[in-house]
Design goal:
The chain has 125 residues and is mainly alpha-helical. The relative contact order is 0.15. The mean pLDDT is 82.
């Protein structure tokens, strides 16, 4: 039971991290200090997608599932949990490049908004 709960916790953390990579720049609008956590997270997310790296959270989850007596899975987190919903054909390097590009474009847009907002505040003062 413990290992199963821990594996589920890894899944929740993994998904939270992915959402943070995608949208964490919005937190920077609230507090600039978030950029200190968000920018490295974005760099990691881009590296995983563009360089086709294997996130260490996936083997951790699989290991915990095996210790719980359940089966692990092949591939990576996105391929197992998300791509099956969005892209039933499975995760390919081309899809990873698209996902990485979405991360870049979304965050460029958010940070452009952050910079324009900061400049607006300085000009108003």
């Amino acid at each position: 039971m413990f290992y199963s709960v821990m594996a589920d916790a890894v899944v929740v953390f993994h998904l939270t991290f992915i959402v943070f990579v995608m949208l964490g720049g919005l937190l920077v609008l609230h507090r600039r200090a978030w950029a200190l956590l968000h920018l490295p997270a974005v760099a990691w997310g881009m590296a995983v997608e563009f360089l086709h790296l294997y996130c260490p959270l996936t083997p951790l989850e699989n290991s915990l599932r095996l210790q719980a007596g359940a089966a692990g899975y092949e591939g990576d987190f996105i391929g197992h949990y998300l791509i099956a919903l969005i892209y039933p054909a499975g995760l390919t390097p081309q899809i990873q490049t698209v996902l990485g590009s979405v991360v870049v474009l979304a965050n460029l847009g958010i940070y452009l908004w952050v910079i324009l907002r900061w400049r607006g505040r300085r000009n108003a003062a």
